[in-house]
Design goal:
16% of the residues lie in helices and 28% in strands. The chain is an alpha/beta fold. Strands 1, 4, 5, 6, 8, 9, 10, 11 and 12 form a nine-stranded mixed beta sheet that branches. Strands 15-18-21-24-27-30-32 form a seven-stranded parallel beta sheet, with no helix packed on it. The termini are far apart.
Length: 422
């Protein structure tokens, strides 16, 4: 009989709608991050670094790229005969086929997978956070306190606390109450969406609450366990943790990687971040190129100037082009004589020559100001921008555009250009 002490269930189904066109064709955990990585690489690497070798990855929204990236788990050393990594999409059942309707419903639909390992503990993770965490230390805390549920929490500024699920704990860290996004928070311990459950406790709660529509951990499962008198504990995490759920937080987290002493170091020997990467030739910087405080991916050719930016793999930066404070993802081609300021350009885009992005004053975006803000220019994957176009701030372009799509060769600040069919 297979027996694993702790298995992990990684929720990676998110659409990530606040990332706008970056996630219109790809699930949020598969979005590129920090040059050659993808967001899901972080929780997967944490698992293998913490000695958790059995991970179920629950996918839903546009899972193809995520599934291809994970494959059989070789980069994370998760290609095991017993355990390893398993991608768990919603599947057709004989009676009805059901999408995952909530975080806990996704776990409930995979009870059989978990049963197969007879685990003592189940670790629930989210696929869209950037952090390094030793889950083994959290498990030790869970055992030492005789907890049935341990919730990883992080202190947040009091004024931001109403955005999170907030835990109220006593001096022994036992949780006495919790509030989902409270208007007047009484504590600043925010749930990170990372849980360790005793398997029996989790199983009972899921079975008892199975009929709830959109079954969710924060709204249903944890309150149920609390009501049953299960001991719930708060495990405080003090390291770097970033929810990259908005374009601005995604941009900030990338920019923090290039600080002189980055708060979050991708290259520590003892806690490696693994990824599935293609074999690429080294970077090429021409003799006239300038690169300062930037990450440049493998296989990228720089003929221009790059400042304070994160450039992915297989990118070309043309002659006389100047890139500042920008994120350029894999295989994007940028022509000669361009200026890019605070732009996020998704994979496989083509930017013509003498294109200027992020020019002029800010104006509120006309279609989704809650997504496109902070002066960022966002270009969706496989988009094409023809030569000589000037684009303002808080703008978004998605699709193969031609000169005829622009007025006087420009797109004003705050404007949206999304070609039909994209």
């Amino acid at each position: 009989m297979i027996k694993k002490e702790m298995i992990a269930m990684l929720l990676a189904g998110g659409q990530g709608s606040r990332l706008g066109v970056l996630t219109s064709k790809v699930a949020k955990p598969a979005v590129a991050f920090g040059g050659k990585y993808r967001i899901i690489d972080f929780p997967l690497s944490n698992c293998i670094n913490s000695g958790v070798d059995t991970v179920g990855v629950l996918t839903q929204y546009r899972p193809l790229r995520l599934n291809t990236h994970i494959g059989i788990g070789i980069p994370w050393d998760l290609d095991r005969n017993i355990g390893g990594v398993t991608v768990l999409p919603p599947y057709e059942k004989s009676s009805n086929s059901e999408w995952y309707t909530g975080t806990a419903n996704a776990i409930y639909q995979n009870m059989e997978y978990m049963e197969g390992f007879h685990p003592e503990y189940v670790l629930i993770l989210s696929g869209d956070h950037i952090y390094k965490m030793d889950y083994e230390v959290m498990l030790d805390f869970h055992k030492a306190n005789g907890a049935e549920v341990t919730i990883a929490v992080m202190p947040v500024p009091m004024e931001e606390a109403s955005r999170f699920g907030i835990m109220i704990a006593d001096e022994n860290r036992r949780i006495t109450e919790f509030e989902e996004k409270p208007e007047h928070p009484r504590s600043n311990l925010a749930s990170m969406g990372i849980y360790i459950f005793n398997w029996k406790t989790l199983k009972n709660a899921l079975m008892a609450m199975a009929d709830q529509p959109a079954l969710d951990f924060g709204k249903h499962v944890i309150p149920y366990c609390h009501k049953q008198g299960s001991p719930l504990y708060a495990y405080e995490f003090t390291g770097y943790w970033k929810d990259v759920g908005t374009l601005n937080s995604y941009w900030e987290a990338n920019m923090e990687l290039i600080d002189i002493v980055p708060e979050f170091n991708l290259y520590e020997e003892y806690w490696k971040i693994y990824t599935g990467s293609e074999i690429q030739p080294p970077q090429y910087l021409s003799e006239n190129s300038v690169v300062e405080r930037s990450i440049i991916g493998e296989g990228t050719n720089v003929f221009g100037e790059v400042y304070n930016s994160v450039i992915g793999c297989g990118v070309t930066v043309g002659k006389g082009t100047v890139i500042r404070d920008s994120i350029v993802m894999n295989r994007t081609q940028i022509g000669d004589g361009c200026q890019l300021n605070k732009a996020i350009i998704a994979e496989d885009a083509e930017i013509g020559s003498h294109v200027r992005l992020g020019m002029g004053d800010e104006a509120e975006n006309d279609t989704a100001p809650h997504i496109y803000n902070h002066g960022i220019v966002t270009i969706g994957e496989k988009s094409v921008i023809p030569d000589g176009i000037t684009v303002g701030k808080n703008t978004v372009i998605f699709g193969v555009t031609t000169a005829a799509d622009y007025t006087d060769a420009s797109l004003a600040s705050g404007k949206t250009l999304i070609k039909a069919g994209e």
